[in-house]
Amino acid sequence: MKIIIPMAGKGLRLNPHTLNTPKPLINIAGKTILERLIESLSTIIKTFHIKEIIFIIGNYEKNIIKNKLIKLANKVNTNPIIYHQNFPLGTADALLKAKDSLNGESIIVAFSDTLFKSKSLEKEINDEIDNIVWTKQVKTPHLFGVVKCDSSGIITHFVEKPNNYISNLAIIGLYYFKNSLLLKKELQSSNNDKKNEQEYQLTSVLEKMRKKGEKFTSKQVKEWMDFGNKKRTISSNSKILSFEYKISKLIHDQAIIKNSVIIQPCSIEKNTIIENSVIGPHVSIGNNTKIKNSNIKTSLIQNYVKIQYANFYNSMIGSQTVYTEKAKKVSLGDYSVYN
To answer: Can you tell me the distance from the alpha carbon of 238 to that of 235, in angstroms, rounded to the nearest whole number?
Structure first.
């Protein structure tokens, strides 16, 4: 078995935060989204003795993340294989870039902007199931690819962002294919059918496979954290903080807290200084950041940030940013100055 992680998208819905930092490398409570994803797959890696993690990246990320991908793969005793999607033409096109690795082995496909919690993911994969699409019930299914199932959990329809209600089971971006060669053949067939430069999505490819007789089973995860846009990223940050606060210490020993109140759950990284401020709940703060005379809640702040006289919530602040002002909602990318 192999793991494939497509991560070539430009993350436009998270601009300006993804102008300098690829979305998978945004820090959430001290770890990047990508690092958390690989950790969540570690049990599968051990159970099935996986030796390869395949990354599909875009051109703009090459020099930024190649070394980081190698380190992350080696950390879980796997070899990294890297393919490139030069133009963002959809999720199916991204997977097709890894066609040389789709040679019939079983694969896990995990998109890099999704995190999940499941009690026994590895136990759901067995010889009796050909393909698995992991899902989660959502309140806004029109924003996602969804599946419709029969009473036994077999998928009867795949629909990408339906205009009319089909189902509330959203596809979370995690898949299992028993025979990757069948996926490869349909990816190539769909690629030949599409018009030049037109995006095509994995959801439509899976629907074509289903119509040709391939059986897909839906399995629901316990929790899903999505990072598709700023609102969902901040919400997912809050979920992760709530989970991890119960099991680990989130304030680094080398963080300095002076005359301030920290309302948990919060994550504060190494060499960060908080003075005369109220922080929390649900705030992640990166390393080497300085915050003075501020009131911040439900926000995500990256590394090497300077903030004074701030009063905001539901906000994202990129690395190397300087902020001095009074406001309620803020979205600043890396290397910004606001005063």
So the answer is: 5
